[in-house]
Structures are given as structure tokens and as C-alpha cells.
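Anyone up for a design puzzle?
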């Protein structure tokens, strides 16, 4: 069974695509595209040296051009806070008196245990407070 060179290049491209999917490393995708270019070169009847040169040139060109663009794009996106980090800096309404020992607030539609940031502060029901941090299941407010 004699397999053409372009088929081997496509098998290599698929082989490089598997770690791309498993590891989410885009470099493998760039090498896979280089392997497809090598397959096209082989299908056009060029020799092994030309196939390898095309593979290397396409792969290196993609690495040199696409990676910096992707890095700039990723750096330009604002980081979105999630979970309890998203609650820091939000305002809440005091439901039960909040002091250094505890109390209750309504934060993001939920009732939370709360305590004041400074032990001598006191907030009465109805007042608006700012969430400074989340300590376990307790919101620290001021």
C-alpha cells in the first residue's frame, strides 16, 4: 500500500490539530496549517525539500504574524470579575443594623451577613453601604 506524500501531510495536520483542541495552544493550529500547506505542495508535485520548506515558512510566518496580533487583542480586553470578586465595590442596602459584630444587608438581590470595616462604625436599616471585600460568607462594608 503506497500512500501519497500529501496524505501524510494531512495526517500530520490532523495530528497537530488534536493537541490544539486538547491544550488550547494556538501554536499547534499554526503548525497544522503549515502541514496543510505542505500537503498542497506535495499534491502539486513538488519534491520533499520544497514540501518541508513550505511547511516551515508557513508555520514560522503564522507564528510571527498571528501570535503578536492575538497577544495584543487579548491584552486589550478588560478583565471581567466574577463570583465574589464581582461583588467588591458594589452598593448594598442595610436590612438589619450592621456594626463590627455583624448584621444583614441586601447585596445583588441576596441577603448577606455583614460587618463593618471599622469596628466603631454603625449602619442602620435603610442606609446604603459600599462592599469593601467578601470574607467567607460575610460582606465587609463601609
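Challenge accepted. My sequence:
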Amino acid at each position: 500500500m503506497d500512500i501519497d506524500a500529501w496524505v501524510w501531510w494531512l495526517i500530520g495536520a490532523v495530528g497537530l490539530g488534536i493537541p490544539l483542541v486538547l491544550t488550547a495552544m494556538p501554536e499547534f493550529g499554526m503548525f497544522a496549517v503549515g502541514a496543510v500547506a505542505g500537503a498542497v505542495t506535495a499534491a502539486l508535485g513538488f519534491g520533499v525539500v520544497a514540501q518541508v520548506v513550505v511547511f516551515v515558512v508557513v508555520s514560522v510566518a503564522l507564528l510571527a504574524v498571528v501570535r503578536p496580533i492575538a497577544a495584543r487583542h487579548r491584552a486589550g480586553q478588560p478583565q471581567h470579575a466574577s463570583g465574589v470578586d464581582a461583588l467588591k465595590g458594589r452598593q448594598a442596602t442595610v436590612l438589619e443594623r450592621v456594626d463590627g459584630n455583624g448584621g444583614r444587608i441586601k447585596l445583588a438581590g441576596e441577603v448577606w451577613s455583614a460587618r463593618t470595616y471599622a469596628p466603631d462604625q454603625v449602619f442602620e436599616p435603610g442606609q446604603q453601604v459600599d462592599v469593601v471585600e467578601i470574607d467567607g460568607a460575610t460582606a465587609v462594608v463601609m
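A detail worth pointing out: The chain has a mean pLDDT of 90.
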